[in-house]
Amino acid sequence: MRLVRQNEQCGHEGGRGERRGWRGRRGRGRVAALAVSAAVVATAIASGCAADGDERGGAGAHGQQPQLGPPAQALRDYADALRAQQAARAAAAKRWGLASAPLAAPPAPAVKPRITTRKGFEVEGQAQLPPVFTTVPTKDKVVFLTVDDGAEKDPAFLRMMSDLKLPYTAFLSDYLVKEDYGYFKRMQKRGVVLNNHTLNHRYLPGLSYEGQRREICGMQDVIQKRYGKRPELFRPPYGNYNRDTLRAAKSCGVKAVPLWASEGFARHMEWREWDKDLHPGDIILTHFRGREDWKGTMPDMVRTVLKTVTAKGYAVARLEDYL
Ligand SMILES: [Zn+2]
User: Which CDD domains has this protein been placed in (predicted)?
Assistant: First the structure.
């Protein structure tokens, strides 16, 4: 495993994030300098490059053990923790049959990108409505995993994602979720945000404004009641929507409408873009499905998606960190 950076290289210019952080925080004292140095050490360790000798606490220039002040000790602890994390992740990858360990996502962006509706996806009056998009604008080499509907409730999927420390976001439809609200409660307790995919998974453009409101706002109410939090994200079933859909969603608290750029199945990927490739910030759709639906298990799907994502040099990041 290694941290994913644009233009990854050895040394203090190891990544865009560090450079920006260094310039932004220069002169704010030891704590800021420590944070920057920690990032440098993290990048160096993760990329296999050597960090500064004194920061790593090696033998001094004259063969003496250097005295470690609090900042150096903190750095050493941080480096140890990072190595332990990497080892744990590699072991988890092996346990779950992954050819290689997933890449670790860079830190969440300090400033969230401004989300706009994808060209060609607008409705009339779009500027006043929640944005519809398939890719998050970012230069980080990350993609986002989103899992829809809720049919398959495989405990192994929860274990696998926790074990691999892979973030994902769920878009739930009540007619499936209500078979076992507890499964998704356990998911939420593991840090997954539960979002809105309507009550009954209807084709929304075929419904009146009021009908759409019942489907979308009804699911807002269910998630709030069952899970204590009103979703900010909504995804229309099949990705189909019209102006009434976005008006209805806005009226019950939806802030954004993420669609997807590619889709993961148990044994293959499908692509929206002509180049059949991943791009920084792409949202990947997949589903809670099992053997009856796609001749494989949820863990098979995760392996298939990760094989592509990791081979192409991307990390899976947390969608909510960017929205
Ligand atoms: Zn769906």
Answer: CE4_NodB_like_6s_7s
Q: What is the mean pLDDT of residues 30-37?
A: 42
Task: Indicate the class that CATH gives domain 126-322.
Answer: alpha beta
Over the chain, what is the mean pLDDT? Answer: 84
DSSP state of 117: P
For residue 198, how far is its CA from the centre of ligand 1 (angstroms)?
9
Give how far Cα 43 sits from Cα of 58, 85, 125, Å. 18, 14, 45
Dist. CA 204 → ligand 1 center (Å): 12
Mean pLDDT of 290-302: 94
Query: What is the bridge-based pairing of β-strands 169-172 and 142-149?
Result: parallel
Ligand 1 centroid to residue 235 C-alpha, Å:
8
State the distance from the centre of ligand 1 to the C-alpha of 29, rounded, in angstroms.
Answer: 50
Q: Cα of 257 to ligand 1 centre, how many Å?
A: 13
316 close to 192: Cβ distance less than 8 angstroms: no
E-only strand ranges, 265-312 = 269-271, 283-287
Predicted TM-score (pTM) of this structure? 0.79
Residue spans of the domains in the chain: they are 16-95, 126-322
Q: How far is the CA of 240 from the centre of ligand 1 (A)?
A: 10
Q: What is the pLDDT of residues 58-116, one digit of tens each?
A: 333 444 555 667 788 888 988 898 888 888 889 999 999 998 999 999 999 999 999 99
User: Would you say 309 and 316 are in contact if contact means Cβ atoms under 8 Å apart?
Assistant: yes
